[in-house]
Amino acid sequence: MLLAFDADAVRKPQVAAAQLACARALIKAQYAVEFERWKEADGKGIDNLLAAGEKPEGLSGEDAMAAIKDVAEQAGVDTTASETASSGPFFIHSGRILRRIVTRDGDRSAIPLCNFSARMVEEQELDDGVQTSRSFAIEGSLATGEALPRISVPSAEYSEMDWVLDSWGARAVVNAGRGMKDDLRCAIQSLSGNAHRQHVYTHTGWRKLEGG
User: Fold this and answer.
1) Burial environment of residue 63 by CB neighbours within 10 A (0 to 12, 13 to 18, 19 or more)
2) What is the pLDDT of residues 179-199, one digit of tens each?
3) In terms of domains, do 8 and 63 share one?
4) Is 96 inside a domain boundary?
5) What is the pLDDT of residues 88-120, one digit of tens each?
6) One domain, residues 69 and 124
7) Per the domain annotation, does 23 fall within a domain?
């Protein structure tokens, strides 16, 4: 079976993960896997490559699988089983948050959602005496081990995930791809466990509390 995924798979973890999972499923089904490799500069897809008069490099057997795994590694796809924290389909490995993917044949892989880990350490209910709002105290660190500053994110702004760039700058990267931000939003919440909850009064003066 000949695999010829687009050459930009080295920059797209979802594509690289799908290619690796496909190759493993074919081998499991006892198919011989061959892999067509070429430089992205010569054409994104194999149709572009052939239209330009170029030819791909054909690999087979162990060489094909080694090349497919190399593409996955370049794209940041983690296929190891070791995890430092886990919740549902999400886990933290090597300082990054990843999402598990499983093919219909049961082959497992994982897609990195970002280049950092993060968790909610506190949920604050802010009470100004008239109305209440909610915010989350979030701590994180880059995959390099460098700590990111603790930040406070209003609940109304959390879901959009723009706070990552606004608060932590360009060094904290949410990976490109459909649904990545939504997956990361869910992952951080899931991996945070039971964050400490605190009711904070933000106004001055006297206040009669219930039961007081």
Assistant:
1) middle
2) 999 999 999 999 987 777 777
3) yes
4) no
5) 789 988 889 999 887 666 677 888 999 999 999
6) no
7) yes
